[in-house]
Structure to design on (424 residues):
């Protein structure tokens, strides 16, 4: 069975004690049944602070899953002060559970191929994305191709048109090579002729197309090609640009979304160093700065400048990190948009979740930018934000549906609300 993976996949390696955002802290570390059985016969290393009868004694059942019981600082008890794993030091890599062995790798097994990806909740993965000029996200084998993979392929070409073949020979089943070559050139021209859009506008187009496809009774290659054609994309661009999306509404809605996303983590005292300062400022702005055009002041900004001006200034700074954000979104699309047993509704839900994630990242960076007296968005700040927000949004499929159902009027948003949280 063929395996496909991004071209940077094999470059990943754990940066161990050099990692500033360890995966051994502040989230669930699953222990599979086979590992737990082995751990029942293995004593803890002598340098583990609290000695128990065996390694399994350091685990617990939580939400139906066996996980490592974290200490009072929400750290794995096997994490040493030098940020290395005491288990690996004492017993070698083979002692680790499947989760610790594979993270941040993710594997999806489809009927006729396997996809291997890297999750962005690891800082070393963000480093790979940052360093990649044009990351390659491969097509599925011809015999595995379905309308969902065709949709994903077109979305990836919209986000990163230079990062993968715009059309490959595998996209066609035409025997005549001269016709095939012309088709490839035509497709290449269509995609590349579409004007450069903001990241927000690209996501708005993607959601609109998915909603239109969702409304159709049948889904085939011809319909997908039509919706991703240059003419359709150009018309969508004109329509989107003509719509007034008040920045004030987007700002305050995203402020509320970030607070809602953070509340459970704050209640559990997780990611406090990151969340507490920005959520405090977020709540202050929601309560005290309700007039977007009125000057605001707070401890880190003592000059009277309106939120409208601050938001506009931030957009200029945020545009500087858009190359990384596009690579990040492309990786999310390749990893999460299509999974085994997907339905078109699932694709819509995942695009919504990715948009929510993007909005939370942007809002978090805006609040940090304010706190830092409107200084540059440093790479370290962006990387930390990407890692923590993606850990906070790393829900399982059922949990995503439950969150969306409980937090919004409908599981499937209308396009207007999708546009509201993104803005232009």
């Amino acid at each position: 069975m063929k395996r496909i993976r991004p071209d940077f996949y094999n470059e990943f390696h754990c940066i161990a004690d050099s990692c500033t955002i360890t995966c051994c802290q502040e989230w669930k570390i699953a222990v599979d049944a086979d590992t737990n059985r082995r751990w029942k016969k293995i004593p803890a290393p002598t340098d583990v602070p609290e000695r128990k009868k065996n390694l399994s004694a350091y685990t617990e059942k939580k939400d139906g899953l066996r996980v490592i019981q974290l200490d009072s600082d929400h750290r794995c008890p096997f994490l040493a002060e030098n940020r290395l794993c005491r288990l690996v030091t004492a017993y070698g890599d083979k002692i680790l559970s499947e989760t610790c062995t594979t993270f941040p790798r993710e594997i999806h097994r489809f009927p006729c191929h396997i996809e291997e990806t890297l999750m962005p909740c690891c800082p070393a993965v963000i480093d790979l994305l940052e360093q990649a000029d044009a990351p390659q996200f491969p097509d599925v084998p011809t015999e595995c191709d379905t309308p969902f993979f065709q949709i994903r392929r077109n979305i990836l070409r919209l986000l990163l048109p230079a990062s993968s073949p715009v059309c490959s020979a595998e996209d066609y089943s035409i025997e005549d090579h001269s016709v095939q070559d012309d088709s490839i050139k035509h497709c290449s021209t269509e995609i590349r002729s579409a004007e450069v859009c903001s990241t927000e506008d690209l996501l708005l187009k993607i959601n609109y197309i998915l909603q239109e496809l969702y409304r159709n009774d049948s889904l085939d290659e011809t319909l997908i090609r039509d919706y991703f054609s240059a003419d359709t994309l150009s018309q969508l661009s004109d329509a989107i640009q003509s719509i007034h999306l008040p920045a004030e509404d987007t700002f305050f809605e995203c402020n509320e979304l970030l607070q809602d996303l953070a509340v459970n983590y704050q209640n559990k005292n997780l990611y406090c160093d990151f969340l507490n300062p920005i959520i405090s400022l977020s709540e202050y702005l929601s309560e005290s700065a309700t007039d977007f055009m009125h000057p605001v002041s707070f401890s880190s900004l003592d000059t009277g400048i309106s939120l409208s001006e601050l938001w506009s200034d931030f957009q200029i700074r945020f545009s500087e990190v858009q190359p990384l954000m596009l690579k990040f979104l492309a990786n999310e699309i390749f990893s999460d948009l299509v999974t085994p047993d997907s339905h078109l509704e699932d694709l819509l839900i995942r695009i919504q979740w990715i948009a929510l994630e993007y909005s939370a990242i942007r809002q978090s960076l805006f609040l940090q930018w304010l706190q830092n007296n409107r200084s540059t968005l440093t790479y370290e700040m962006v990387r930390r934000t990407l890692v923590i927000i993606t850990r906070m949004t790393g829900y399982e499929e059922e949990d995503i549906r439950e969150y969306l159902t409980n937090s919004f009027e409908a599981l499937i948003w209308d396009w207007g609300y999708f546009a509201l949280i993104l803005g232009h």
User: Anything to note?
Assistant: The CA atoms of residues 42 and 54 lie 5 Å apart. Strands lie at 2-4, 59-62, 65-68, 105-109, 113-118, 295-298, 301-306. DSSP finds 17 helices and seven strands in the chain. Confidence is low (pLDDT under 50) at residues 165-195.
